[in-house]
Amino acid sequence: MARMLPLLSGLSSLRELKLRDCNLCEVDIPPDISGLSSLVSLDLSGNNFISIPASLTRLSKLENLKLSNCNMCTFGEADTHSDISGLSSLVSLDLSGNNFISIPASLTRLSKLENLKLSNCNMCTFGEADTHSDISGLSSLVSLDLSGNNFISIPASLTRLSKLENLKLSNCNMCTFGEADTHSDISGLSSLVSLDLSGNNFISIPASLTRLSKLENLKLSNCNMCTFGEADTHSDISGLSSLVSLDLSGNNFISIPASLTRLSKLENLKLSNCNMCTFGEADTHSDISGLSSLSHLNLNGNNFISKPASLTRLSKLKSLHLSNCNMCTLGEADTNSDIFGLSSLSYLYLCGNNFISIPSALTQLVGAVTETNRHSTDLSTKLSQHDPSSYNADIQLLD
């Protein structure tokens, strides 16, 4: 393959080139690769580069470059022949799975870069201690993936990225989000719309998050959380006034955190596998009707004996997931549970529960599509004994 590369340089009309997993190293990239004058997208992932091949920096029209899993430890910093600013049109760069201790300083010269992936790079800093790395040089950066690195807290330098809209910091062993760092003003991320902090170690929601007034999507799944700011006087959850989607799956809530009910714009909520056994019924501080915009709710894998009565106050709810919850009834015996309250429900998932027969409450859901699992509920014979037209709900049995 290395011998073929010089032949490619004559393809002046070539726009996209993929050379993944070809055992290439720096010397295999010919100096005259600049002959690929129309090249817009280049994928060199899975090769063996210690640093970016110097000849690549002459591809002035290149917009998308992938160099993931290449065993790289530098990005041209020590190479006098590599002027990274030659990649003047670069918009998207994937450097995931390499071995950078910190963000390569040379990246800050890519003023047009919008999307940067540096996940799983063993990084522990993001340029804070490097006097040559001015992160504000990434002035056009909109999306940044730093998942799978080793940050104790959010790198303070990130707060200088005022145009950043999407940030991934999942599985980074973080336990704080800048609360104790006087140099980290999280409000500097003034354009942030989507934030993924899944797989970190927060006991509760980091108080600093509530300063992100434009945040619409937040992932905090599998973070060992047991509260959501209820006991923290510094954490006013209503500061997340634009939040539309929230994923809290895999945490340890006994019931729905009362503070969630202040999120009036929330449309999508995931609370699956949280060991919950109630949904705010016994909590006088939790008025579930505060979730007035909620349309999609996932409660799979919790421990409800019956459908939580409070759910019936969610009049705009369109889809409800209650699979694998050890339920044996759907609220028939509960006088406080009027399933009619779910007037907008279109999709109901009840797979993997312990119903002996079709819950009679289902007949109240006019037009709802209900999915159950015949292996776990043994409803196939029950259905054959009833006239389907007697049910207002459409029942679908899934294999």
Please explain how this structure is put together.
The protein has 399 residues and is mainly beta. The protein has three domains: 1-90, Leucine-rich repeat, LRR (right-handed beta-alpha superhelix); 194-294, Leucine-rich repeat, LRR (right-handed beta-alpha superhelix) (Alpha-Beta Horseshoe), CATH 3.80.10.10; 308-399. Helix content is 3%, strand content 13%. It contains three helices and 16 strands. It has a 16-stranded parallel sheet. The longest helix is centred in the C-terminal third of the chain and has 5 residues, at 380-384. It is elongated, with a radius of gyration of 26 Å. Residues 374-399 have low confidence and may be disordered.
The fraction of residues assigned to DSSP E strands is 5-15%
Shape: elongated
Could you give a short account of the major beta sheet?
16 strands, parallel
Structural class by helix and strand composition: mainly beta
What would CATH call the class of the largest domain? Alpha Beta
How many distinct folded domains?
Answer: 3
How far the N terminus sits from the C terminus, by CA atoms, comes to 48 Å
The tally of helices reads: 3
At the fourth CATH level, what is the homologous superfamily of the largest domain? Ribonuclease Inhibitor
CATH-assigned fold name of the largest domain: Leucine-rich repeat, LRR (right-handed beta-alpha superhelix)
From the 3D coordinates, which CATH architecture of the largest domain would you assign? Alpha-Beta Horseshoe
* Beta-strand segment tally: 16
Q: Helix fraction?
A: under 10%
Low-confidence stretches: 374-399
Radius of gyration: 26 Å
Strand order of the largest sheet: 1-2-3-4-5-6-7-8-9-10-11-12-13-14-15-16
